[in-house]
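Propose amino acids for all 75 sites.
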């Protein structure tokens, strides 16, 4: 197996990027997710513009794509 294909397990202190789902989520639900991850010893990272003005999704397609790309590039 090549090094790029090898998966490492999560460890306490690891950063977890939270990206907006395609459906709407509320701030209280997001806070519960953050608390759950923190209880596991992980460090959730949420974009400042996680929420947008859209009604049916958490943010625009463009914003959600930027968040996902940033998370995948670990920016």
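Proposal:
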């Amino acid at each position: 197996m090549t090094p790029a294909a090898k998966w490492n397990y999560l460890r306490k202190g690891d950063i977890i990027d939270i990206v907006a789902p395609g459906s709407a989520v509320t701030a209280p639900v997001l806070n519960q997710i953050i608390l759950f991850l923190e209880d596991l010893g992980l460090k959730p990272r949420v974009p400042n513009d996680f929420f947008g003005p859209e009604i049916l999704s958490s943010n625009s397609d463009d914003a959600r794509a930027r968040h996902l790309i940033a998370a995948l590039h670990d920016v």
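The mean pLDDT is 86. DSSP finds two helices and two strands in the chain.
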